[in-house]
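Much of what follows relies on a compact textual record of a protein's fold. An example makes this concrete, so a full record is given next.
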Amino acid sequence: MAGASVPTYLYSDGVPLEDGLTHLRVRESVRTTERLLREMITDKDPKKRQWDPATGLPFDTEDPWTIIRALIRVCKGYTLTNEPRLAEHDHSGFWNRNLTPVGAWPILQYIGDGAQCQAIVRLVRAMAMAIGLPGKVELVVVYALLEVDGGKTALVDSMLPLDQDPAKYRIGWMGQWEFQPGLHHAKQRTANDGVGEVPGLADRHVDVGDEYPLNKVFNAYEACLRYTRPGIKEKPTYFGGGVPDSWYETPEEVLHIFHQLVWTRRVDTAFGPQSRVVEIVADYRKGKP
């Protein structure tokens, strides 16, 4: 999706971490928006096909909220696994870096290979700007910290501007701050045997002693597109990049898509490097069916 780009004229902070708009990107954004709207309205699930669950009314395809809800379906789910053949695009993160300057746009070309939740919401925001969608479209991450209410309270950071707090970010590519919001990646704890342990948000129920491949199950945060319709006293809606067909009214609802906040330790096994659960800090599903 590379090409001669021009600065976006929408929003004061522009398209974050992506290359600018081109005729091709605008055209593909319009085509993809129309396709996703049609797919949502004709979904095999009759509840999704006939009614908008948010309002109980028939779909209004001219409502910006409906359009955003369709756009978040651009990826069926998230992945943290990198595809080697897409290394030039920095899969699965699709960061805009010196060697991969176009950011999240290539997701449209390689939609079947998936992307990280942060890359998905970045693409959706860029597409929303490309089609001129009204309203406030923000990129945020929802996470928890062990130091704040034992990990039970949902916290929100904006992806823009990049937060320079060294407790949450670390020096990465080309000596610049690497985007690692949420859990304190640079603040690992040391076990008695000197092995470092890191926190993780589990996307399924886990028990102490369970082991999973690296880059599976445990997340640092849920990246969301926070959308506010234009109008008076409109409340924002959170759309998670890895959970299409879902939306949330509060950060707490977003946090509770995860099952637990845990400490993990890397271990080498016959099946390769694994993340082993060493402690359950908070259980978000306890007492829930």
In short: The longest helix spans residues 23-41. The first strand starts at residue 136 and ends at 143. The chain has two domains: 1-134, 137-289. The helical segments are 23-41, 46-50, 64-71, 117-130, 251-255.
